[in-house]
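User: Last request for today: this protein with D-serine, please.
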Amino acid sequence: MLKKQDHQIAKLIDLEAERQKTSLEMIPSENHSSLAVREALGSLLTDKYAEGYPGKRYYAGLKYYDILEDLCRDRAKKLFKVLHVNVQPYSGSPANAAVYMAVCEPGDTIMGMALPMGGHLTHGWKVNFSAKFFKSVQYGVYEKTGLLNYEEVEKLAKDNKPKLIFVGATAYPRIFDWKRLGKIADSVGAYLVADIAHIAGLVAGGAHPSPVPFVHIVTTTTHKTLRGPRGGIIMVTQKGLDKDSELAKKVDRAIFPGFQGGPHMHQIAAIAVCLKEASTPAFKKYAKQIVKNAKALAKGLKEYGFNLVSGGTDNHLILIDLRNKNIGGPEAQNLLEEAGITINKNSIPYDPAPPFKPSGIRMGTPAITTRGMKEKDMKKIAGWINEVISNPKSVKKVRQEIKKFCENFPLPR
Ligand code: DSN
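Assistant: Here's the final one, the structure of the complex with D-serine:
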């Protein structure tokens, strides 16, 4: 149908499908969703408005949508073991914005990990609303080890008495000590929010400790390691309700009518499908394989002399400091893309270079693990990455090898 009606868009989708099929998608925040997820996402559920929540909507004709949203919420509650869930955030940034709105007033002090240290824009970085509307205090990692500086978090929390502390990252390859962070937040009476966008699939699959017992609120996107459609979720824990019995209501009101209008019900249906998939034994195995693959890739890269921030990885991602390789992040990103390896340039902690021309690259294993690749394949990929970076003339040859290699690992159908 699309081909007939709009051949330009159909053609672009076909070209992108071919690109994905013949390349290694290794941006750690990306994945290949299942056909079932995409079927729900592409359904006629996109056609209706559903402002409000199940049982209390502002539009008619929503009886099936109420059942659907309840199902989605129940699946998330069960999977992550939380007491209250909101599945309406359009994505991670709106989810985080709503959390601020739920528990802070403009001008309050908040804390988060600085973006160049591996944090996220919405955790208080200076160009983001989270630093414009709140007094943002930023923490980071140790320069020497690349590990989260818990002493700094504690000192800054004691000195600044934030209303809320965000913990979570986009470029941190290690496990978070949620218990220690929980103690720090409690000692100053702050709300502790775990943004598990990157690691949600690992947490769901038991491959990363869950923050739930130690934090008040959890936010996540649904399209990274969780392997769903683009979307966001906010969760309230038992600890959150113990601190603030109104917290669930505050979160819901912050999303609607506070921050968003009509929820994207086709997206919520697809999130429900992904949550069902994520509660299977096969997904547990997948989550563990993501980590095994990342560790194998890290080992391979280290053998070629790559300098990994923090020395390795405990999760799905690897951050490489390229300064000993005589190449910048952007150049490495472009060469690897030409060869069929999609990674992204990324600042490294204490990067002397500017954010648009950083000294590092970031890569991860969620998508290639979905395609069925294992540790032995990571060894090959490390070899190709090394070959391209140390000898740019090899790009064309490597491109052909990767195309052939990808034939063994079809995308989900
Ligand atoms: N854009 C995401 C990432 O790539 O990590 C963070 O939201």
